Amino acid sequence: MQISKIQLLFTFVAAATASNASGFSLSNEVALGATSPFLHSTLPNYDQHGAVDISPGSILFGKRQPNLGGAIWSKIPSEFTDWQIHAKIQITGEKLGGEGMALWYSKDRATGPVMGGADLWTGLGILIDTYDDDGRGNNPAIMGILNNGTTTYNHAQDGEGQYFAGCLRNVRNLASPLTLRVTYVREMLRVELDDSTDGREFVNCFERVGIKLPAGYFFGVSGMTNSYPDGLELLDLKVYGGRPLSEDHNNSKPAVASNQDHRDISAQIEKALAGQLRQYMPKIISGHSEDAVRKVSSSHLSSLDDRIKSVGDTLSTMQQTIAGLAEQLHHNDQSHLGEELHHLGEELKARLDGLRGQTTLVQQEHATLRKAVEPTSTVSRYGSYLMFMALQVAILAGFLAVKQRMDKREKKWM
Ligand SMILES: [Ca+2]
Ligand SMILES: [Ca+2]
């Protein structure tokens, strides 16, 4: 089967689309890479080692020649505690053929004889051993093997005694490519297979809990031929990472980050308001003749001060509302989030209307002040005051723009 282009993704899915048949959801994170077609050159997110031939339709390991192996390894280590691999492969050859392919989550990035990966690796190997070296009729086998850097693969017995789980499944010369879905969530590892022609029909290969794998390892795919070389092709690879949306709040980084963002923004706005008040109020007062200012300052400036304080209070309330929302996103069941956002939108609209009204009032105060002082002052004396007002409006506009952006971002990962 030829595919016009291969997509090697090292990216993350939005939670809304990440729910899978396994019942797990992976939260979205920052993308680490991009989708690319491969045009006989290098892979954007992976390094290649050994016998690897890249064409627009596939990545071929072992060149269909005897005893050759190759691998691709992610260029950067994964920073995620949970992840999922979708690897679409195709293994074709004569009646007997080998030796197989492997998916890796490993500290090492070495090429070698273990389906193209090196012996003595540290981490997880999902080995697809197609050749029945010990003649026991138990190949092709798909096996999960954990290694702490001390184990050499037992080729003669096809990994007997080394795998913690596995399944027997024909993977050669299938009518359609075979997709392996490897899910690692909360120390549970599951391997599922799908060779259906019409979409996702994964069947379980094995599942095991208590598999401890740290973040910081590399993802890899490899293949190795033996004396009866198969065509070992990778047609598509996607790696999703993140953390499960669960009651474990400490692992829910997006919500924490969002919450912190809101707090940072609100704190910055409040700080800016306070700073501007400190900076401009003396100038407003000193910019006028003392007599003229005294005539109006006790009532009008006091009123102005109250208005500005009110604006600040409203902003503070908005901050608390947003922070509260972030907490809700953090703690609540997802089904509540839509409603919460709706309410927040209504509330923000009401508060915005209130702010507009207050801005008008402040402007009226300014007009009164100006009228009262005008006989003994020039317009330029009010420059600092006008600048103060302009800054208030700018800060408000900035806040609302940032808020809209935050809302948008939150909706994406609902
Ligand atoms: Ca074997
Ligand atoms: Ca065997």
How would you portray this structure in words?
The chain is α+β, with helices and mostly antiparallel strands and 414 residues long. The chain has two domains: 238 residues, Jelly Rolls, CATH 2.60.120; 161 residues, no CATH class. Helix content is 36%, strand content 26%. It is built from five helices and 16 strands. Strands 1, 3, 4, 6, 12, 13, 14 and 16 form an eight-stranded mixed beta sheet that branches. Strands 2-5-15-7-9-10-11 form a seven-stranded antiparallel beta sheet, with no helix packed on it. Strand 3 and strand 4 form a beta hairpin. The two termini are 37 Å apart. The structure holds calcium ion (2 copies). The site of one calcium ion has 8 residues, from loops. It is found in: Membrane.
Write the layout of secondary structure elements.
Elements: E1 8-11, H1 15-18, E2 46-50, E3 52-54, E4 59-61, E5 69-74, E6 82-92, E7 99-106, E8 111-114, E9 122-129, E10 141-148, E11 165-168, E12 178-185, E13 188-194, E14 203-209, E15 218-225, E16 231-242, H2 253-286, H3 290-331, H4 337-373, H5 383-412
Parallel strand pairs: 1-16
Antiparallel strand pairs: 2-5, 3-4, 4-16, 5-15, 6-12, 6-16, 7-9, 7-15, 9-10, 10-11, 12-13, 13-14
Helix pairs in contact: 2-3, 2-5, 3-4, 4-5
The structure holds calcium ion (2 copies).
